[in-house]
Model the fold of this input.
Amino acid sequence: MLIGQPLRVVVVGAGAMGAAAAWDLARRGCAVTLLDQFGIGNDLASSSASETRIFRLSHVDRADVRLAVRSLELWHELEREAGERVLYTSGLLQRGAFALRMAEALRAEGVTVHDLDHRQVAALFPELRPYPDTPAVVQPDGAVTLSRRALQLYADLAARDGAEVFGRERAIALQPRSGGVRVFTERRRVDADVAVICAGPWAGELLKPVGIDLPLEPGLAQVSYF
Done:
């Protein structure tokens, strides 16, 4: 980077992490290039495989709670900047021993959380099977996010603030170079001072050749929404 010139950053992957990073870097004055191989808000990204995702402040670690509180502030900032609502507060009910650990972490960080007995749970969620001896808590800031729409808004705001956004350009290799990095795509090369890799399960194939080995561990989770 030459003195007096903006930091050049290439962001690979336009999911929740990459698209948000691109906007934040662009509005800080960086010269940003955002790349995504499948397009903004595609079906293969964990951030946008469906139209919605959940948002929660509830975590067992206090540091995670603090990060989530800051994240909530940034969700509202996104809405203000975009002039569009993408976060719909519904509250979040959690049951089980871990719920008490979450409640403890929330209260330690000054976040509102309410204990419920089984009768209150039944009144709020009559479709759930009652478990009289199971702890339950509800955190009012739990929400549903319009995740796919949010990614497009991040990309649009990044472009508004000067970023170059390429929604169907695949990065295939990285090459460290003196004072920066070179990213090769399927049709060109992009030179930058910094590369931010947010490619999810595709990150390994980019990073391993430059000495960063990120093991991929597939998992399966079953989630039900009420």
